[in-house]
Design goal:
It is a single chain. A seven-stranded parallel sheet has the order 3-2-1-4-5-6-9, sandwiched between helices. The longest helix is centred in the middle third of the chain and has 29 residues. The chain has one domain: NAD(P)-binding Rossmann-like Domain (Rossmann fold, 3-Layer(aba) Sandwich), CATH 3.40.50.720. The radius of gyration is 18 Å and the shape is globular. It is α/β, with parallel strands linked by helices. Helix 1 crosses helix 8, helix 3 runs parallel beside helix 4 and helix 4 packs parallel to helix 5. The protein is built from eight helices and nine strands. The structure holds NADPH dihydro-nicotinamide-adenine-dinucleotide phosphate. The site of NADPH dihydro-nicotinamide-adenine-dinucleotide phosphate has 31 residues, from helix 1 and helix 6.
């Protein structure tokens, strides 16, 4: 797929990775449908990127809303060839036994149902045209336990296996599926996690050289721009200043 042939539907394009990916794809010559709930951000992005960007206000937690939005796309943007399921959030950092069920529900609705609804609305058209690439944004947090990430990590584990299952089921068709799994990266992610508390959000990055949203967009674009016969199944990236923790957490007797 050449960039000029790409019609890219990006969820969560109002900030962070999604906005960076929209800029990256358009700069390469692709058309982008930029979605998210904040209409003003989408309009600003469309002003910046011009006719190649179609702003589409959308809450991915609404099945009907997603289907209607996809069905009502204007002609030059109808035949989506790349879906970037990026919208997502981590809300809170407390232990499971103190969790707010509403925050858990919101993470399930956004990180799981949002991916499911967009895939359900867009994948059949890709199969009909025998051409498409789905890029799902997982997380290193979906591959190993991390205290405070109870439901968030669980939703990203879902994204990992869902990606692989869809890929397996599309075997024999010209459909690619990739799960991009970032470690800590700078975006509005922490601000959302800490409910708008900028001080706490910034403290999470203090002293760290973290990944940037543009670097994640590079990884997404890299996977999509590869020759059509190559499928990156999973790509995981972390800053060098982050690593796996060893299994040394013991509660000793006495
Ligand atoms: P941001 O908070 O900067 O961006 C999140 C995006 O998701 C926003 O554009 C937001 O748009 C959108 N979004 C949230 N809820 C909804 C909804 N209900 N409907 C539609 N859009 C929604 O964070 P990131 O860019 O960092 O996050 C992007 C993805 O990367 C997420 O899936 C996140 O879990 C994942 N990730 C992030 C990491 C990090 O360290 N930053 C690490 C690993 C994974 P709006 O509010 O306008 O709707």
């Amino acid at each position: 797929m050449t960039p000029q042939d790409m019609i890219v539907f990006i969820t969560g394009a109002t900030s962070g990775f999604g906005a960076a990916a929209a800029r990256r794809f358009v700069s390469e010559g692709a058309k982008v449908i930029a979605t998210g709930r904040r209409k003003d951000r989408l309009e600003a992005l469309a002003d910046e990127l011009g006719d190649a960007c179609h702003p589409l206000p959308l809450d991915v937690t609404s099945h009907e809303g997603v289907q209607t939005a996809v069905d009502s796309l204007p002609h030059p943007f109808r035949e989506i060839s790349v879906l970037v399921n990026n919208a997502g959030a981590a809300l809170g950092l407390g232990p499971a036994y103190e969790a707010d069920i509403n925050l858990w529900q919101r993470m399930l609705d956004t990180n799981i149902n949002g991916v499911v609804y967009c895939t359900h609305a867009i994948l059949p058209g890709m199969v009909e045209r025998n051409r498409g690439h789905i890029v799902n944004i997982g997380s290193v947090g979906g591959r190993q336990p991390n205290p405070g990430s109870n439901i968030y990590g669980g939703t990203k584990a879902f994204v990992h296996l869902f990606s692989k299952n869809v890929r397996a089921e599309c075997f024999g068709k010209e459909i690619r599926v990739t799960c991009v799994e970032p470690g800590v990266a700078r975006s509005e992610f922490n601000l959302v996690r800490y409910d708008g508390d900028m001080e706490k959000a910034d403290a999470g990055y203090a002293g760290l050289e973290v990944l940037t949203s543009e670097e994640i967009a590079d990884a997404i674009y890299y996977c999509v721009a590869l020759p059509d016969h190559i499928n990156i199944n999973v790509i995981q990236l972390m800053p060098v200043m982050q690593a796996y923790s060893p299994w040394n957490l013991y509660r000793r007797k006495g």
